[in-house]
Write a structure and sequence with these properties.
Helix content is 0%, strand content 49%. The chain has 119 residues and is an all-beta fold.
Length: 119
C-alpha cells in the first residue's frame, strides 16, 4: 500500500514562508492527482490545494489562493506546497493525499507535518 511522507513543517512567524514536501518514498506517484489538506484542532479537515500529476493543473482553496503554490517535480517524485504570507489561521497538521482513481477520492496515507504560525 502507498505510504506518503510529508515533511517541511515547523514554527514560523506570521508573514513568513514554508515549503512542504510530499513523497512516496521516492517512488513515482501511482495516481492521477495529489492534494494537500490541513487539519486544525477542533476543525474539520480542509482541502488546501490539488495538482494533477500528468498535466500539473492546480486548484486552490479560497484561503490558499494567491499565497500558496502547489507543484510537482516528476524527476524527483515530490509534490511541494510553497506557503507564503502565512497567517496564524494556517496553523495545523498538513497531510498530502493521493487520488489513484481519478475520481477526486483522496486518501491520506501519511502522518502529516505540523505547521505552527505565531503572531
Amino acid at each position: 500500500q502507498v505510504q506518503l511522507l510529508e515533511s517541511g513543517g515547523g514554527l514560523v512567524q506570521a508573514g513568513g514562508s514554508l515549503r512542504l514536501s510530499c513523497t512516496d518514498s521516492g517512488r513515482p506517484f501511482n495516481g492521477v492527482a495529489v492534494a494537500w489538506f490541513r487539519q486544525a484542532p477542533g476543525e474539520e479537515r480542509e482541502l488546501v490545494a490539488v495538482v494533477t500529476l500528468a498535466t500539473s493543473r492546480t486548484v486552490y482553496s479560497t484561503n490558499a489562493e494567491g499565497r500558496f503554490i502547489i507543484s510537482r517535480d516528476l524527476s524527483k517524485n515530490i509534490v511541494y506546497l510553497q506557503m507564503n504570507s502565512l497567517k496564524v489561521e494556517d496553523t495545523g497538521i498538513y497531510y498530502c493525499a493521493l487520488d489513484d482513481t481519478g475520481t477526486a477520492d483522496f486518501e491520506i496515507r501519511g502522518q502529516g507535518t505540523h505547521v505552527t504560525v505565531s503572531s
